[in-house]
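Duplicate of #3305? Posting structure anyway:
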């Protein structure tokens, strides 16, 4: 079992722990991330909305707010359109809800993966224009949709684009374009997802209308979109998402979220962290858009009462079960293809492609490959000579930079450093396979410190670095992009019980000294475990919502029998 163990400083960790009233184990995690004094540690551990960056320098924010305020006053019809992922759908729900609360006449729509595809496509524009709007707000798309924006302009419709994707050099023909990645945008925090930008715009509309409306109830949707879109969980995003997670944990929150929690079998009193969003909420919210129409998810997020929400959640859950079956087959075939083409330990970027794979699940499969093989991964569904693929990074590798080096082979690509989408002609797959591998290798050579080996934040050592309590782990939330969950090494964990759950997953009861905790190994149920003997376990600690009482569970990445001398 290969890994890299970060250096530790027990004395500095104890000092920081004492100053912040946290365990030395979590203090060492902070030290590893360059948070070395009590003041910066307290700010990180307790991010407040009062510390959000002033939006005054955001390009076109005032123009967009004034136009929306004018539309509300004049009762002009506004079409709010979002992309088909969680960020786009949640952004559309936020903007639609708030404009309605402010008195606007609103139609809310989302893109369809199979009828127009990603973003502000021509079929999407036709659907939008059928609602006869005077103004359109495009959420989480539009930054590269110049032709359709020109068409809307010629049709006499104003368009406001609210997006966070990378920006082409050509000027966008929109009335207003909110995107911190614009070179001329003075807003200093560049990491906001579209949900965060939409909430900021809504605040400006509220101010322009002079209406007192508390926008904090929509922070749950901001948290969903930010985490699901793999946006950096730093700065403003950290503040917004931390507040949103608190709302998502409420048993009496938004009807759609309450129903979703029930469908996911999350206990009413369970604390919600970024992991629950990424692995339990987001897959369900994306399922309808992956296999059919994302409008179902939009309706769930905007449901007004619990009975309606529960009915919608049942339909979402049914589709999600179908998605699991399809995704499992694609992933298994993709893994087999990678093993054949690259072997069990690839050192550069990998690509799997096949005719007949469902294009709606390739993003999940790409994530599975990146997790399993530890390298940037691409999974492509081929149909009628055209491939549509999803790309996923791992351990901070700059995926977009590598993909730019393959642009001559691709028909189209877009996204960001952690996740991307591509289209490619089937005849170019082998050329792409070679070019992507070379591009990743070249990028790795430029980044000497990058490694595909797991990096251990802290090795558990009773009396020095004890098992972290769940309450301390919660202070690190939200964890994810740019604030990864800390990885722990437990060198001597005695196995007291072992069982297979869900037919394929491993559930262990472990003991370190006098402390007991559970461990969960996803799809590791076939592995043999030595009862009554120690193992060396590597993984991520999370609160154990089933046991409660500040208990933790180790999500196993890998383990091996501890060598006895």
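Output from current build:
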């Amino acid at each position: 079992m290969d890994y890299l163990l970060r250096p530790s400083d027990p004395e500095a960790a104890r000092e920081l722990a004492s100053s912040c009233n946290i365990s030395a184990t979590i203090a060492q995690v902070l030290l590893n991330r360059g948070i070395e004094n009590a003041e910066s540690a307290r700010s990180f551990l307790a991010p407040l909305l009062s510390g959000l960056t002033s939006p005054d320098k955001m390009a076109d924010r005032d123009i967009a707010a004034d136009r929306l305020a004018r539309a509300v006053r004049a009762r002009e019809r506004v079409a709010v359109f979002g992309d088909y992922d969680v960020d786009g759908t949640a952004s559309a729900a936020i903007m639609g809800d708030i404009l309605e609360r402010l008195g606007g006449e609103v139609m809310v729509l989302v893109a369809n993966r199979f009828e127009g595809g990603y973003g502000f496509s021509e079929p999407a524009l036709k659907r939008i224009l059928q609602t006869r709007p005077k103004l359109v707000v495009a959420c989480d798309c539009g930054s590269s949709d110049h032709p359709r924006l020109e068409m809307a302009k010629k049709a006499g419709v104003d368009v406001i684009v609210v997006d966070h994707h990378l920006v082409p050099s050509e000027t966008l023909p929109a009335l207003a374009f909110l995107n911190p990645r614009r070179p001329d945008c003075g807003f200093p925090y560049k990491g906001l997802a579209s949900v965060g930008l939409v909430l900021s715009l809504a605040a400006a509309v509220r101010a322009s209308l002079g209406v007192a409306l508390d926008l904090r109830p929509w922070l749950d949707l901001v948290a969903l979109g930010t985490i699901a879109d793999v946006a950096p969980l730093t700065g403003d995003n950290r503040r917004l998402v931390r507040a949103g997670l608190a709302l998502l944990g409420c048993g009496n929150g938004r009807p759609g979220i309450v129903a979703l929690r029930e469908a996911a079998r999350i206990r009413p009193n369970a604390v919600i962290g970024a992991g629950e969003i990424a692995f339990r909420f987001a897959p369900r919210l994306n399922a309808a858009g992956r296999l059919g129409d994302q409008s179902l998810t939009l309706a769930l997020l905007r449901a007004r009462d619990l009975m309606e929400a529960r009915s919608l959640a049942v339909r979402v859950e049914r589709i999600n079960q179908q998605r699991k079956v399809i995704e499992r087959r694609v992933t298994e075939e993709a893994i087999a293809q990678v093993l054949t083409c690259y072997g069990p330990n690839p050192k550069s970027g990998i690509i799997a492609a096949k005719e007949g794979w469902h294009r709606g699940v390739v993003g999940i499969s790409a994530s599975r490959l990146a997790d399993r093989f530890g390298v940037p991964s691409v999974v492509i569904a081929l149909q009628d000579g055209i491939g549509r693929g999803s790309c996923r990074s791992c351990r901070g590798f700059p995926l977009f930079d590598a993909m730019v080096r393959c642009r001559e082979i691709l028909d189209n690509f877009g996204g960001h450093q952690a996740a991307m989408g591509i289209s490619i002609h089937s005849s170019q797959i082998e050329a792409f396979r070679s070019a992507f591998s070379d591009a990743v290798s070249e990028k790795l050579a430029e980044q000497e410190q990058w490694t595909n080996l797991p990096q251990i934040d802290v090795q558990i050592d009773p009396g020095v670095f004890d098992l972290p309590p769940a309450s301390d782990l919660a202070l690190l939330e939200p964890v994810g992009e740019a604030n990864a969950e800390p990885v722990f090494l437990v060198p001597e964990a005695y196995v007291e019980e072992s069982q297979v759950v869900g037919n394929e997953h491993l559930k262990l009861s472990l003991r370190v000294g006098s402390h007991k905790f559970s461990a969960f190994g996803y799809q590791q149920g076939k592995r043999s475990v030595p009862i009554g003997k120690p193992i060396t376990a590597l993984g991520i600690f999370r609160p154990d919502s089933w046991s409660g009482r500040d208990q933790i569970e180790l999500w196993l990445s890998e383990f091996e029998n501890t060598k006895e001398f």
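Confirmed duplicate; merging threads. Residues 306-342 form the longest helix (37 residues). DSSP finds 18 helices and 18 strands in the chain.
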